[in-house]
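Need fresh eyes. Consider my entry:
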Amino acid sequence: MEIKYEGRKYLNYLLNAFFDVKPGEVKKVFLMQLNIFLTVTTLLIIKPVANALFLAQIGVDKLPYSFVLVAATALLLSRFYSKKLINRSLSNVIKVTLLVSAFALIVFSVLLQLNLLESWVLYLFYIGVAIFGLLTTSQFWILSNLVFNTREAKRLFGIVGAGAIAGGIFGGYLTTVLAPLVSVENMLFVAAFILFVNVKLNRMIWVRYVNQLNTYQHQKRVVQESKHPIQLIRQSKHLTYLALIIGLGVIVSKLVDFQFSALASRSIYDPDELAAFFGLWFSNFNVISLLIQLLITRRVVGIYGVGSSLFVLPAFILFSTSLLFIFPILAVAILLKTCDVSIKQSINKAATELLALPIPSGIKSQTKSFIDVFVDTAATGISGLLLIFVVNGMNLSTTAVNILIVMVVLVWFYIARKVRIEYISAFKQKLIRQDGKNGKSSIDFSNESVIQGLKKVLEKGTEKQKLFILKKIEQLKDIRFATQVLPLLESENIQIRIEALRCMYFMPMIFDESLLIKYLQDKNIEVRQLTFDILLRYSTEGRVRFIQRFLQNEDPLVSSAALVGLSIEARDNAEMKRVFQLNSLIRDKIDYLKIIVDQEELIAYKSMILRSIGHANVEEFYPFINQSIEIKTDKTIVNEAIKAAGFTLNATFVPVLVSLLCKDEYKDTACQSLAHFGPAIFKDLLIYYEDPSVNSEIKQSIPKVAEYISSPASVDFLLMLIKKEDSLFCINVLNSLNQLRINSPHLLVNKKTVIRMITEEASLFQDILSVLYTQQKMILSDADHELNKKKIELKSELIRQLEFKMDQILESIFKLLGLRYPPEEIGTVYENIQSKSQEQRYAAIEFIENILDNDLKKILIPIIEIAALDKLTDEVVKSMQLKKLNEIECFDLLLNYGDKDIIQSVSAIVNISLKEEALESLIKKYSLF
């Protein structure tokens, strides 16, 4: 037993040292690696078999038709598949996909061996293999996002993905060995058996790692779309070029695949030998790709930059295709295919991922899978149509396909050049925007690679520019920036220090522990926490020993920082909690609070303990969080306790956090803490809003929670609240919607919805304006009658209320415009419309007239012009063509409006006018008394 324990301990040490796999994560990583390994192994068994049988039995000249059929089937299936994924559990969808695929392979094998419907079966088999590859890999990465939290995913997706490379190598070589021995048809039984094993494996993963997630955790790990990715791509020139360059790469890849398949089928006639050949080279391509990735990719991308790296793949394809013109033999076709597959999966993939760096993360997450799947599928269909036209339609030889490859590659070069320019421009514009100036950037990007430009920003840029670049570098995880990031740890700007530390977390340690140790005593809690995270990640003495060393440090700030770091690492890791006896450590720290005399030290120490409890999510210490909130001895402690409640993602804290929304000093922290629960919190918040017993101040603060949740669900939730009657509340919601748009520009509201809402507000503005004008005229006519003095006072009050409501409606209109146009610009226009300076008001009208669409311009400009006037005149009313209303019609309209204050004022006027028979219908209609 001792030997077994020591062996496992040593294995954990090696995995931690080389791959950053912590105790308790080994089994999870292994199961997910095995999952993708089996999936890709299956694909690399059936793909060579499908290719070999299709080419041997049907012929290479029909291959283009299969490309088109694959694209058409994938596009049709994706719509059906998306609906099923929404309405059913991912676990069931994965299970059905694997089982259907396994039984289909068995059926195909039997039909092929019996020579039944051979042509149809081969077409269906070829298409099915392509669809299988798309579906299963997509499902795997969706499952991975549920199994691993964000922190784990950043560390472990690399090693998990290595399972796919291993499966690609193993599956192909297995096919090479077995195909000549058992025949290609029987290889399908082997693949089906692997899929049945994978069904059990997926079930095990789901039960162990997904079922334990609560509603909040589950929804936080699922990417939601705000609008269709095609719209997002069309709105961004950078995304359009990115999609084009990926699409062109797929077209060329399919043309290369055709050449490779054509020359292979001409040289090898036996299906079993052809399957073995494909299996061998598909594996070889993976091996070569891995070697290039490990030995060459970083150097090429690092030295020549993203823009130049984009030309490597098309250049090698152009060179290989030129050789194929001279030597149309299988060896050159292998070289061409090797360049296509190996460089695409290494250098080109790295360059493409870096190319997406300037794209906001929200848009990137929504469009990446669409580009990977839809663009790939559409490009496959286009390549099929091109081949049908060139090879079959024009009856040309494969030499013509070489010419076609060269033509597409030349277009590829052109788009690569355009996308390089756009890439540099995107960064330049971002930096100018971050600097808050309209002038030129102080950094010249035109004479150097973007990477060098980023380094210069970190050395000489403004604080805003540095913050922007640091956030982007965090995504790169590249050691090349460490030299520039390290000095920023000394910045006086706390946010820069924090962002610099976040970057260092994903860079290999190139400095010793002593350089960072001092930041464990920093006054800022975030700095202390992040510093420990980095020290822990890159420790060479082993995690257990390292954490224990810092937990025993004499400085309470250092030991408490170690406790927070341990809590974060062990949150979803029961084994780590057990190994470090986390509950006992927290308990000891709480006991230590009793002997701390210095108040400042007590606050700092207690804050770290609260964070530890929140991140570790240990229910035993929930009362400590509640007590810290209830006692309210110190604002810092209460705010830390509120944050800790949010970190737990536990439903028991939701009522506590909601109750704090009416406390001004804790409102913002409570909103952010509730936002930490993710989109699932909206269901709870809606219940509170609809509860009549809930404090109105709490209801007023509910929309602010959505400002901190960058999700389409936030937009939907706020639009739902806008439908409520209280106009003041509506403005509150619109403020939150505008702020959400500023924080997350990719979250757009449907254009038709915005225009409809603006039109409704504009119509209401005009109606109230008609009533206002009528009432003003009536006051003048009633002024001569002493008996109407009370009525005049009431009507004057009503007029003040109407003017106030018109101001509210105008503000609502501008807030709605902020959902259609840049909210910062619209906000500036609104401020100028309210200005006392007539010149500023007219300038604002001129500006907004130039940016509004024609459909909105006709509706809004007259209203805005009236709002800018000091006085309402007969000429203005006449030009507006307002409704002419009598007193009854005015009251009817206002009572129907539903505003409580206005109804009260109208009721008071009606009350002193009971003798007027014309008002009796209103009294009955609206039950005024």
User: Anything to note?
Assistant: The chain has a mean pLDDT of 80.
